[in-house]
Amino acid sequence: MKKKMISSMLVGVTLMSALSACGNKKAESVAMDNEVKEETTVEQNSDEPIDVLNQEETLKLSIVTMQGYTAPDSETEKWMEERYNLDVEVIALPGWSDGTAKISLLMGDETQRPDIIWWWNMEADFTQWVDAGLLVDVSPYMEKYTVMRDYYNYIDPGVLFYAASDNGAIYRIPGDVAEPACETLWIRQDWLDNLGLEVPTTLDELEKVLYAFTFDDPDGNGVDDTYGLGGDGYDYRSFWPWIQGSGDGLGRMELLCKDDGTYVHGAATEDCKIWLGRVAKLYADGVITPNIVTDTDRGEQMANGGYGVTYDFIDLNNPSNATMQSFYSTNPDAKWVAIDMVAGDNGIPQDNPCSVSAWCYFGITNVCKDPERAYAIWDDMAKPENYLRRRFGVEGRDYIDNGDGTYEIIHAGDGAENTEQNLGIKLFQDLFSRKDEYNISNTAETTALFERAKNDSRIAYSHTIERRNPTLYELNNELGTDIGDIVKEYSWSVISGNRSLDEWDTYIEELEAAGLQQVIDELTQLHGAQMVEYVKFVSEH
Amino acid sequence: MSKVKRKGIRRSKGEQIFTVFNYAFFTVLCLIMLYPFWHVVMMSFSSVEATAKGGIFLWPKGFNLDTYEKVFRDPSIWTGYLTTIMVTIAGTVLGTLFTATTAYPLSKKRLPFGKLMSLLVLFTMLFSGGMIPGYLLMKDLRMIDNRWSLVLPGLISAYNVIIMKSNFQAIPDSLEESAKLDGANDVIIFWKIIMPLSKATIATIALFTAVGYWNDYFSSVLYINSKDKWALQAVLRYMLTNTNQAMQSAGVTVTAVSNVTAATIKAASIIVATVPILCVYPFVQKYFVKGVMIGGVKG
Fold this sequence. Notes:
The structure holds two protein chains of two kinds. Chain A is of the alpha+beta class. Chain A folds into three domains: 221 residues, Periplasmic binding protein-like II (D-Maltodextrin-Binding Protein, domain 2), CATH 3.40.190.10; 157 residues, 3-Layer(aba) Sandwich (D-Maltodextrin-Binding Protein, domain 2); 74 residues, no CATH class. Chain A has 21 helices and 13 strands. In chain A, strands 6-9-5-10 form a four-stranded mixed sheet. In chain A, strands 3-11-4 form a three-stranded antiparallel sheet. A two-stranded parallel sheet of chain A has the order 1-2. In chain A, helix 19 packs across helix 21. The longest helix of chain A has 37 residues. Chain A starts with a helix and ends with a helix. By secondary structure, chain B is mostly helical. Chain B starts with a helix and ends with a helix. Chains A and B meet through helix 1, strand 2, helix 3, helix 12 and helix 13 of A and helix 3, helix 5, helix 11, helix 13 and helix 14 of B.
């Protein structure tokens, strides 16, 4: 007993020592960090740009990141440290569900606040950080270091407008901005061929193809196991061809700006009623996958197959796309092709436009010892050659430059090589991400599809509402959730056949009772003023 | 003798039906509880294609170990294991020790203000300081990004103290009195008499504590910044939640970065995270029911 007791205690003491060893180093490090952070922030008074490649003093940069590569001491991290004389600390967020809590904690604690913070959503928090002076205005730096600024202006002048504050200060740098449109209509070419059908060009033709895919055994296996339409469950995007093609295409389930400058909620328009009716009939006739009314994942649905038409990401066209690799591994004879959007009632087919504002941002905080140098470094890393190094690795080893503007990816960054060899491909993935020709994971064909989708989505985009400062829309923030719930409840009930379009008027009354008109009035006032600012901003920049 | 025995076990038809029903009912109940775990195990050994098609997995479909290979080739799994094992062992050893040494004095009627102190312990079970005060405390102790921050906050559980206290109260005072007559002091009595007599409860508390530490991911979220110090559960949660669906529900709309192996990786991750702690159960099972009963009856 005595021996057991002593051995137990020894185990405990040993563990305490081991943990102390792990902890002490960090405790010292924290203490040192605090000392460093207490030092005065370096003021760069010169108008001359900083030569980031020839700095004698090592700059410590703690950087928060979420997606991409997050392990410490990677090859890419060391490349950054050597190139810019940095001491980089990667702070990895713990995932989407807890990420915002961690960001709030980091920003709320001066001793833990990183030098560069990354976040998504969190509009209210961002406003508080700015008010509290936690973020640095980088707009003066953008005048001296222009790579990121020029890139975003090339993408769309609205990117920086939506990132900027009303006074022109820029406390948040766009981290990733989606392509102007990133989805397209996909169809099983092999099924079309088997049934002797042509590629549909109108909504009516598309519906005929859906019925044929469902009932005419397109895969020829003699089993009734196919559907016409499939896609992401509980997501209106799966029905985009009908949304854009019904009436004037204003039946989108969001607030929209009409051609005459007035505002409307798409879910309350006659266009919406039309597409809901069409889709509900298709669902009732069994030509749409049954689980499209439940919350399923589009990637998994696409990999499962079993349907012949879907509206999904253009990225599926890339050979490196894991979803399609999985699909083709079990369906080697299948052939998905991206086709032009079908024309609907108004004869102007449109793809689904993406927001021009970034979905995530990063910012330099007030604890950063040298914010201008930090910005200048990031701007230098945004240059094509440096971006390729950070995002895609080493030329020749991780990708091949064919010299004709095309590339071959060897290690996409998702494979075991990246983690096993600690390569660091995709390090700080969403802290500036290019969607131009230097996004080399796109094939030439994919790039052309993106370009086509961009051109074919501008009319739809002209109706899209973008909010520069969502916190200003108090009524929308207060009533929007209830309105959204009414829309979802009714629309999905209609699609699944649990409610009828005969109840449309009741549904509209419910929306009005929930304060829809108040929200539209507020939007009319605030968004109208915002667009005046937008025109002014674009003309000045 | 055999006649008597046969007569003794003879049961009425109703009893026989009841027994059959009982066996059938509990067998079905057992299967219902076991199947989800079995499903995950089988799915983790199945091919990506079979998993994508879904359905019931009684056996692996298209057996392969690629998913496990992918999971184990991720260095963060191993750093996660290292942290979790260190934290679980340290937390369990120290937690059990401190729980016992806290409960023992509280179990003594002669302890001055014993009732008040028991009440204060009970109070912490009902009302805690909350996440932010906890974080501030760790910060002031300079334990942010330090593995001790994963151990210390959960070291003593009021619930376990109460169970342990009830167990100590059940030990007859006469044993201590006789030991005192033999010259033993309180420390010797505690280590040589009380602790050996409380093996069942200690094993149960140790198991509760170990499972608690093993399953804890949120402490890593709060207190740890470096990924190489994350506990295993935080690593796995990161892997599980960073799928497209989670991104969409988080309000993110980006070009697809799909991972169709997500389902198999999830299954394999669950197995990787669960099996080690499951292996502990058989070793403490014999104490488990007894230990809980002792605490429960007197609590």
